[in-house]
Amino acid sequence: GEDVEQSLFLSVREGDSSVINCTYTDSSSTYLYWYKQEPGAGLQLLTYIFSNMDMKQDQRLTVLLNKKDKHLSLRIADTQTGDSAIYFCAGGGNTGKLIFGQGTTLQVKP
Amino acid sequence: EAQVTQNPRYLITVTGKKLTVTCSQNMNHEYMSWYRQDPGLGLRQIYYSMNVEVTDKGDVPEGYKVSRKEKRNFPLILESPSPNQTSLYFCASMRGRDTQYFGPGTRLTVL
Predict the structure, then answer these.
(1) Which of A38, B7, B80, B81 has an alpha carbon within 20 to 30 A of A57's alpha carbon?
(2) pLDDT tens profile A27-40
(3) Chain A residue closest to B43 (CA)?
(4) DSSP structure class, residue A95
(5) If DSSP states are collapsed to H, E and C, what string results for B38-88?
(6) Which residue of A8, A45, A104 is the best one to mutate when testing the B interface, meaning the one whose CB has the most B CBs within 10 A?
(7) Distance separating alpha carbons of residues B92 and B80, to the nearest angstrom
(8) What are the CB-based long-range contacts (under 8 Å, 24+) for A76-81?
(9) Contact A99 B31 (CB under 8 A)
(10) How many CB atoms lie within 10 A of CB A62?
(11) Strand B54-57 vs strand A55-58: parallel, antiparallel, or unpaired?
(12) CB A50 within 8 A of CB A30
């Protein structure tokens, strides 16, 4: 069935760039999303990319999509301690169904 | 203020005792969805609804029911809860692709 995989943990120093990776199996995913979850809170949509795009930039966030390898990444420039959270990628089509990865915990060290 | 509200936020119950978790949104969104979050598994979609009276199964619908009689409300019903339904539950609403709101979560424990 459809699957979305993420590495579970990433640790970076404040000011460095963070790159969180995600692979997916469902080639019919039309939209790919990135969410942030802070402790004790719900998810917050950070950004999304259409499957016909290769890259999307939104302030400190850059999303790269390699459709051939079914690989998605989220780059956070100038990572701050406030970026410490769990990051989820998810894929979905026009049906409304969404498949999430397991989440990557980002730890930002001062 | 745009928001998705869930009630209750915390619930401890016993096996077999029917319960309902309410979800309400004030943004007139057509799409609503329920997820459960378990350690190491991320979020898994339970049910979703593209509009009033339209609901569809997500990845893990077994043991759950939903209804969408009006646009703002999307309750999650556990007719006979079991311990494997102990989890953190999130409701969400969406319009388009860039407007999504998640509720604060309901932590359910089934003994």
Answers:
(1) A38
(2) 777 889 999 999 88
(3) A100
(4) S
(5) ECCCEEEEEEEEEECCEEEECCCCCCCEECCCCCCECCEEECCCCHHHCEE
(6) A45
(7) 23
(8) A76/A17, A76/A18, A76/A19, A76/A20, A76/A106, A77/A17, A78/A15, A78/A17, A79/A12, A79/A13, A79/A14, A79/A15, A79/A16, A79/A17, A79/A18, A79/A106, A79/A108, A80/A14, A80/A108, A81/A14, A81/A108, A81/A110
(9) no
(10) 17
(11) unpaired
(12) yes
Tokens read off for A1: 């069935």
Residue A44 pLDDT greater than 80, yes or no: yes
Residue range A46-67, pLDDT digits in tens? 999 998 889 999 999 999 999 8
Tens of pLDDT, residues B20-67: 999 999 999 999 999 999 988 899 999 999 999 999 999 999 999 999
Cis peptide before B81 (omega within 30 of 0): no
Q: Please state, in angstroms and as integers, the Cα–Cα distance from residue A30 to each residue in A98, B25, B49, B55, following that order.
A: 11, 26, 18, 21
Interatomic CA distance for residues B67 and B73, integer angstroms: 8
Residue B9: how many CB atoms within 10 A of its CB? Answer: 12
Phi/psi for A33 (5° steps) reads: -120, 155
Model confidence at A1: pLDDT above 70: no
Find the farthest-apart pair of alpha carbons in chain A and give their distance in angstroms, rounded. Answer: 42
Tell me the DSSP string of A9-36: EEEEETTS-EEEEEEE--TT--EEEEEE
List CB contacts of A102: < 8 A, sequence separation 6 or more.
A5, A6, A8, B40, B41, B42
